[in-house]
Structures are given as structure tokens and as C-alpha cells.
Amino acid sequence: MPTLRVEMLEGRSPEQKQKLVAALTQAVVDTLGSKPETVDVLLFDVPRSHWSTGGVLWSEKK
Amino acid sequence: MPTLRVEMLEGRSPEQKQKLVAALTQAVVDTLGSKPETVDVLLFDVPRSHWSTGGVLWSEKK
Amino acid sequence: MPTLRVEMLEGRSPEQKQKLVAALTQAVVDTLGSKPETVDVLLFDVPRSHWSTGGVLWSEKK
Amino acid sequence: MPTLRVEMLEGRSPEQKQKLVAALTQAVVDTLGSKPETVDVLLFDVPRSHWSTGGVLWSEKK
Amino acid sequence: MPTLRVEMLEGRSPEQKQKLVAALTQAVVDTLGSKPETVDVLLFDVPRSHWSTGGVLWSEKK
Amino acid sequence: MPTLRVEMLEGRSPEQKQKLVAALTQAVVDTLGSKPETVDVLLFDVPRSHWSTGGVLWSEKK
């Protein structure tokens, strides 16, 4: 039943996302003993224009 | 002031969403006694390529 | 698979929470046609000292 | 390390968003004493068709 | 209607939290033109034992 | 910069949490190529009285 939400900058490929959710789910199974089918992972692509660090959007950084 | 966030797979129609937010709001009013205007509901459509169960994205399931 | 998160000021009774999750789940079933067992609801009690409206924490309002 | 998430109705300009993240970050720095580079802000534009108040989506309000 | 969620390590004083929510709300008012009473801020204290950076919980860092 | 949030039923030991955040971080590093120090993981223990599946709180299930 563990539910994971991942926020990351947009731009990862579909293949990377497949591998990411598989690896995250395995990490939960290995460390918590959860059954895989009880693990949900939701991915959120955040545009560079919508994420700032230090008060500056990543779309504005050089 | 209760605030609800709903994450669901994309694909529901505008009419379903209208009915969903009305029904969820009524559920809060009926059970918590909140005034309707204090209840916010936010809907998030998650693409099948961004939600996995059991380590497999729904876009990859057959 | 719809997942709901509810943020509300702390203070509701266990009975209210039971009725709330049952009513919210039914609302999803009725409007989206989801099977009940696919609907998760997570409740978050927020202390009055941790929620502000208009820049004032509810613990400070009179 | 404070992380802020802002949900708002879509429609703000890129300039407003730049000013918003800068001002929010400064607010954290001023009041918590955090170093600016440790403050992340994520913005989420919510369509009017996906946010309801009082059980009515903003896209349906007149 | 903008809603802010702030996640931070636990340990800030009630006074810091009061100042934080006031300053964040003012930042939204100044940059987006929102009316103060439409701005909600929710604070979440995260224990050091529940936040990791680089794979190490802050409770384990030296 | 990827940020993960994990919601799970309360009851995991501190050791399980240490292993969990290490394994999740490694999964991100391995599949996305992120530097470990850019990966944050936040854990949220949800009481059984605050999570329902199928409209029934886990504290009420037998």
C-alpha cells in the first residue's frame, strides 16, 4: 500500500520512467517486504519554468 | 476549509468531473458539517505513462 | 485507483472520519464507476497552529 | 531545505511566476534564516476545470 | 485561492511559523494580486528521522 | 533534484526507514543518473485510523 510520488524536472524518456518505477518498487519490496502489487508510484514532470531553487526558476538559470 | 486532492488516471469526461466534485463536496458537508463554500476539491489527471502499480506503468499493462 | 487526500483542521472524531471516508468512497464509486476496493482515502489532521488563512494561523484567530 | 508547493489557478504570466518564487524564497530566508539555495519552490497551475469550491468547478462559475 | 504547502524540518518556533505564514501570504499578495483572505498556507513539520538527502536520514547525519 | 514522498502505514522500524531511503535514492541514481546529494526523500507515516481502502479505515478492518 505504500504510495510514492516523484517530482522531477521534465525531460526523462519513457524508458527511463519505466526503469525508475520498476526500481523504486523493487526498493520498497526489498526493504519493507511489501508485495509488489500493493506499491503505487506516481510521476510528476515539473517544467523548468515551474521549479525554482534559490528563488530562481530553472528556466532562467544559465 | 477541508481541501481534497484527487489523483486519478486521465480519461474522465468533464461531466464526470462535475459530478465527482459535487458528490465529494456533499460527502464532506454531510459527514463533517462543513459549509459547502469552505470545501475545495482539486483534480489531478495522471497519464497512464506516469502511474505504476507493481512496478509497471499502466501504459505498459495489457 | 483514484486516491484522495483530505487535509482538514484537527478535531474530528473517529466516527466522523469513518463516515467521511465511506461517503467519499461512495461518491467516487457513484460518479466514476470505480470499484470500491480501488479507492484509497488518506486523512491528514492539520493542527490550527499549522494552517493559516489570510496570513494568520487559525490558532491565533479570535 | 524547506520545500514549497504552490497550487493556483492557471493563467499567471511567466513574469508573475518569477516574482512569486523570488518573493516566497525571500520570505523563507527572512523568517526562518534558511540559506536561499536550500529553498525549493514548485508551482502547479490548476485548470479551472479541475478546481472546485463549494462543489462547483471554476470553469462552471459565472 | 492559491494554496501553499511548506515542508520543513521540525524545530521552528511558533513565532517563526507565525512570521513565516504572514510573509508567504504577503509575497503572494504582492506578486499575484490575490486578496489575502484567499491565501491558505499549510505547514508540515518533518522529523529528521523522516527526511533524507543523498540517501541518508538527517537524524543519521553528523 | 528529484523529490520523493512516500506515504505508508505507520509501524516500520527506524532501520527499515534507513534502508528504504537508501534504496530509493540508489534507484533514482541508477535509473535517472542523478547525483545522490540531489535526491530528497520524505517519509509520511499514516495511522491506520487515517487511511481507508474500499471506504473502510484500516483500523476497522479485521
Walk me through this protein's architecture.
Six copies of one chain form a homohexamer. Chain A is of the alpha+beta class. Chain A has one domain (3-57): Macrophage Migration Inhibitory Factor, CATH 3.30.429. Chain A is built from one helix and four strands. The longest helix of chain A has 19 residues, at 14-32. Chain A starts with a strand and ends in a 5-residue tail after the last strand. Chains in contact: A-B, A-C, A-D, A-F, B-C, B-D, B-E, C-E, C-F, D-E, D-F, E-F. Strand 2 of chain A pairs antiparallel with strand 3 of chain B, so a sheet runs across the interface.
What's this entry about, in short?
Six copies of one chain form a homohexamer. With 62 residues, chain A is α+β, with helices and mostly antiparallel strands. The first copy, chain A, has one helix at 14-32, and strands spanning 3-9, 40-46, 51-53, 56-57.
